[in-house]
Structures are given as C-alpha cells and as structure tokens.
Input
Amino acid sequence: MMTSERLAFTYFGALIVLSWARPLTLARRARISAIAATMCAAILALPWSGNAIRAAAPFPLILIGYYASGLFFVAPTRRFESWLIAWDRRLLGDPTTRFVHWPGAILAFLDIIYMGCFLLVPAGLAAVALAGEWRLLDRYWTMVMGAEFGAFLPLTIVQARPPWAIEHEPALRDRDGVPNAAAALGWPAIHRLAARFVREVTIRANTFPSGHAAGSLAVALAVIGALPVAGFIFLFLALSICLACIVGRYHYVLDVLSGIVLALVIYIAVISFGL
Output
C-alpha cells in the first residue's frame, strides 16, 4: 500500500477501537464499526484496482471519514466549548456584529468559497494530474488526508457545537435601523443559503482543528512545490476559506489557527521524510 492508503487504513481502524472505548450506544458503535470495517476492506483492495480508481479513492474516503467522525458527537464538552467561545470573544468582541460592516461583495465571496471548499480537494488532484505529476500522487493524498483525518479524529474525544449553532444571526442593520452595505449588496441571501448548507450537509458538530482550514491549506502546500502558479492560486483560496470560517461563524478562531498549524506540521513531516 501507498503511505496515504496506510494512513487511511489506520484512521478507520482507530475509529473502530474508539467507538468501543467511548460512551456510545450499542447501535451507534455497531454503525461506526461497520462503516470503518468496510472502508478498511476497500483500502486493502485498492492496490489491485485500476490506477484511476486508486488515484480518486481518497476523496470519498475523506468524506466518509468526516461523516463517520460525526457519529461520535453526543453532547458538547462544556469546558472545551466555553474555552473556544471565550477566545472568540477575546479576539473578536461580539462576533455577530464584528463583520457586518465589511463590503457585501467580500462577505458574499467568503460564503461562496466556503460552500465550495470541498471542490478544492479534487481540483488539486486534477492540477497534479494535468501537469503530469503523477509521481506526486501519494504525497498529495498523504498531506491532504493527514490534515483532514487529523482534524476529524479529536471529535471522538472532545466535542463542541459550531458557532452558528450557538450564536444569534449576524446583525444586518446599523444602529439607526438602516440596512448596512452588506445587506444592500445581497449578502444576507447568500449567507442564508450557506447557513442552510451547513445545517443540511455537515455533521453539525465542530471539528477542532478545522478540517476546512487544514484540508484546504494542505491542498495548496501539496501543489505549490511542483506547480507554483497553481499552488499560489490554491493558497489564496485556502486562506480565503480560513477567513470565511471565522467571518461566517462556521468555526471558532482557534479551530482555524490550529488547522493551519496542523497542515504546516504535516507538510514539514512529509517533506522531512522525503515522500
């Protein structure tokens, strides 16, 4: 198996072990174990699959790993959640009013890029493939899966609700009751769409570190060495996603900062080992 495949196998194996170590219902333990065991079997079969299947398989593995981690969420770890909230208050003041006077076009862009962040992973793979850099395939997936799984795994131990599930909706009018620039430019409609997206598509639990921040930055770092121009484009998009996580109240500030650190640590580790 490639390094990235061994990494994925280890992650799903850890989910099986943790599902029986954590205080979950028998039904939920059985569900997690069944999903993880199926993924382990699929990973073991990858070396005998076609190159195209093997190259693309990590993307659904990441998605399944994300939803499987959400099955561990039972209730917030109160002290941990309070710690995240306290740091947001310390750094941002009132998060629901902190960004409402930003230009509506910027707020709309950030919500749109947040909703489309999952496309960054296959886009990075496509960039590597189109450049003929298939030799970097294992390194690419090792960095991306390492960042994503590293963000999902702590949810099995410490749990919190995302900011949007706790806070009030962002204020859309100034103190005189006049719609602000963001409202005038149609950002509220886009934000409502993004809010519906996170309610219906995500696991409704907070990942610490942020999988959005860690995964998107890992894509950029995995591409930038071989394809500098494409890599810098991905880096701009990754940093935009990091900012969107905070501005849109999809993640706490510490989620994003720890996600950035996680991606950098994995990048340094992969380069150091010469993968």
Summary: The CA atoms of residues 224 and 257 lie 21 Å apart. Residues 75-272 form one domain. The mean pLDDT is 90. The chain has one domain: 75-272.
